[in-house]
Structure formats: structure tokens, C-alpha cells
Amino acid sequence: MASIINFIYTSCIFLTHDNVYDVLEAAEYLRITSLKEYCRKFFKASLNEENCLKIRSYSNRYNMGDLVQAAETFISKNLGAVLKSGDFLQFDVDDVKAMLKLESVEDSIDEEKYRSAVAWALHDFDDRRKNFSDLFHLIQLENLSKDFLIKVVQKEKLVCNSTDCMQLLVTSLVSRISEAPACKAKPGQSDEILMIGGRNCERSFAKFNTKAIQWSNLPDTNIARRYPSAVNYNEQILLLGGSKGMTHYNSVEMLDLNEENPKWNSNLPSMGEKRCGFASTLLDGLLYALGGWDDNNTTNTAECYDPRNGKWEYIPPMKTCRYGLTAVVLNNEIYAIGGHDGSNYVSSVEKYNLDTKTWIDVSSINEKRNGGSACVVDGVIWMFGGWW
Q1: Domain BACK spans what residues (predicted)?
Q2: Between the CA atoms of 234, 217, 179 and 373, what dihedral angle is there, to the nearest 10 degrees?
Q3: Does residue 374 contact residue 384 with C-beta atoms inside 8 Å?
Q4: Residues 313, 315, 320, 325, CA torsion sign
Q5: What are the residues whose beta carbons fall under 8 Å from the beta carbon of 181, sequence distance 6 or more?
Q6: Domain containing 52: what range?
Q7: Residue 307: which CATH number?
Q8: Phi/psi of residue 84, nearest 5 degrees
């Protein structure tokens, strides 16, 4: 306060990086315009990578528009270094959004924006995670490489746990595919990808049109289900099993996409056992449900459903108990791949032959996988993802 009183009488003051912020606050409170101008000039002359964010914040707070512009110009030219500074992590969400909106000519700046948004959210995860989706929308994913999207962004839990973020990510990745030479769908193949449920959105149902590169919502399921299984039977989506908390289901519901205004129908016969984390697939018009977890144990049981008579029947059990497995059909045989046997993750694979009604061990996959996905393309089984 002594320096402020001295300035009133002498119009002189010695400003430093340590005292200038307090002096500015006093000048604003006491309405000493000339002192505020001294502070403005000091800030403008001393802008650097360490203080530019704080100077921007103070100049914005005290309505010094030209200084705000000067600070933002400096930040734009040095955005990569500025985003790495400790002050960035202390910003409120509106200031972070402002930083992410700034343009810069620096190489790889969009990668740095993404990393900074993640770091800011993780700095106070419980309070800030709700803001991450808004920040993610400000990242120009089209400027990020496909490798960065797959190896970095796709693995970030803040992204994976947000439906909005995942839709943006998938749209960006699919757009890279759409830029490649077009491929015609084979007979029986669809141009749409259906997605049901997921953590924190167990009832949601959406479809992605690979031609329009667009998501659209479908009716929510009747029951919230975690780790269910689903198949598309002649454009009728059959959703089976799953769990909610400690409750496991053997129930089945169906959505007929052939109808103009489809609604989920829960009046279908239930499976013989409660199952979550299991696999299902179609073969010769029959629906097969394999393995999974019931109320107590990992199981190797399997059963099939005939839509023509509405009945479930057991088939011979698999040789290995499997939870988190995946299943595909190749050459009229069902392949059960990977999973967890109740004690260990497994890489083993077995196939079911309809004629002999037996399970046969075949070559294992190269890595143990639980919760992975698989498909068949041109007579070859492709396996993706999972954990172990």
C-alpha cells in the first residue's frame, strides 16, 4: 500500500513481476487510471511464455482489451509452449476453450491441443471430466494423423467413456476410409453399423451410415444391459442377456427395423441360462448363445434358438469355459475365440460342427484376448482388440 500512496503523490512506482498483479488490483479498486495504464504497459513489455496466460486472464478481468489482444497474439505464435505451462492447468473451462479455439501455424499444434485438454481434465478429474466432451469438440481431428487417433486418442479413457467423443472419433476415422477408393458392398452386406449400449449408456441404440458418414439414434432398449450380445436376424435386432449391477439376465428383446416405427418387444422366450459377456451368432437360421458368466461362474454351456418355433435348446458344451469370448461362422462351423476361463485369459479357439455336434480344438490366436471382436472376410477370420 505504501507504494500506491507514494504513486499518488509522486506519479512514480517501481513495478516488478512480483508486485504488478497486486498493484493492478489496487489501481482498479481505487480507480487510479494512470496507475492502471502503468501496469498495462509493464504487462505488454514483459509478455513471455511463462506469464502470457496469467496476463491474458488479468487483462480480461480488468477490461484492457488491447492487452487481451496482444496476449492472444503472443499465445497464438507460441501456442505449443504455452499449453505446456503450469498456468494452463489452473484455468477455468471457459479460458481453456478460448485457448483451444486459437489458431496457430505451429506443426503438430492440434496434437498439443488434444494432450493439453486431456491433461487439464485429469488435473481435477472428478470435477472436470464433465467438461471434456465440450473440449474434445474443439479439437480439429481432421488435422490429426490416423496413427495418432488410433494409438493415442482411441486409448484415452476420457474419450472411450464418452458417447459424444467416440462418435466424433469414429466419424473422423471413417472419413479417412471414405477418402480411399470406394468399395461396393457385397450382396447381403449393409452400409450401416449398429451400436447398442456400452458403459453409462446401457439402453442406447444408434446406427452409423458409412455412406453419409452420419450417426442417427434408434429407440432405447427396454432394459439397461451391460455386456449383452446381439445379432441381426433379417433386420430384426435380437438383444440377449447381459447384466445390470448384480442382476444377470436370460431375457431377450427384439427390434424389427422393417417396421416404420419400430419398438422393442420383450415378449420373446428367454434363454435357458442367465448370461453376460457371452457370444452369439447366426447359422442356418438358428441363433446360438455361447459361454459367458451367470450369477456365479464362467460357463461353457451353449444353446440355440429357432425363431420358427420360438424354442431354445441346449447343444453340447464347449470344451473350455469362456467369458468375454467372441464367435464367428466360417464354412458352416461356429468358432469360439479367446475369452477368460474363470482363472486365466485364454488364446485357445474351438469350433462346433453341426453335422457331428462336437467341439474341436483348432489353432490358437497369437495373443490372449478377452472382450475382443472378430469377423470373417473372404474366408479369413480377423480378430481385433480385447485385453489380457
Answers
A1: 52-154
A2: -60
A3: yes
A4: negative
A5: none
A6: 1-77
A7: 2.120.10.80
A8: -85, -5
Hey, is 382 helix, strand or coil?
Answer: strand
pLDDT classification of 182: cutoffs 50, 70, 90: very low
- Whether 185 is in a domain gets the answer no
Domain boundary, last residue among 77, 101, 121: 77
Looking at 32, 56, 77, the residue that finishes a domain is 77
Q: What is the pLDDT of residues 314-364, one digit of tens each?
A: 999 999 999 999 999 999 999 999 999 999 999 999 999 999 999 999 999
CATH value at residue 147: 1.25.40.420
Q: How many domains does the chain have?
A: 3
- Which range (97-101, 189-193, 369-373) has the least confidence? 189-193
Cell 513471455 belongs to residue: 48
DSSP string, 3-39: HHHHHHHHS-----TTTHHHHHHHHHHHT-HHHHHHH
Residue 180, pLDDT score: 47
Same domain, yes or no: 35 and 127: no
Q: Which residue, among 299, 247, 255, has the nearest Cα to 273 in the 3D structure?
A: 299
